[in-house]
Design brief:
InterPro entries: TNNT, Troponin, Troponin_sf. Keywords: Muscle protein. GO terms for molecular function: tropomyosin binding. The structure is a single chain. The chain is an all-alpha fold.
């Protein structure tokens, strides 16, 4: 697992070639790396906020569906808790013991 991690990181992370660079070029390289970090952090923040918003929307939609099913059950005269369960409510068409 550690070897796989090192191999994948070696493909993604490029080694820095800082040998023979002057002070101004080093400052430029540092500024470039800083801008890359800032860009990645802003993308990360945007994605986290988007995830939070999507989670909230999902909770709202589930709650709305639950309320609609409850209202539907009350209209039909069924137990509202039966519709919110894992399985739909059983509807009896005819009596189990009565034959004609």
């Amino acid at each position: 697992l550690e070897e796989e991690k090192k191999i994948s990181l070696s493909f993604r992370i490029k080694p820095l070639d800082l040998a023979g660079l002057g002070e101004s070029k080093l400052r430029g390289k540092a500024q470039e790396l800083w801008e890359t970090i800032v860009k990645l952090e802003t993308e990360k923040y945007d994605l986290e906020e988007r995830q939070k918003r999507q989670d909230y929307d999902l909770k709202e939609l589930k709650e709305r569906q639950k309320q609609q099913l409850r209202h539907k059950a009350l209209k039909k005269g069924l137990d509202p808790e039966a519709l919110t369960g894992k399985y739909p409510p059983k509807i009896q068409v005819a009596s189990k013991y009565e034959r004609r």
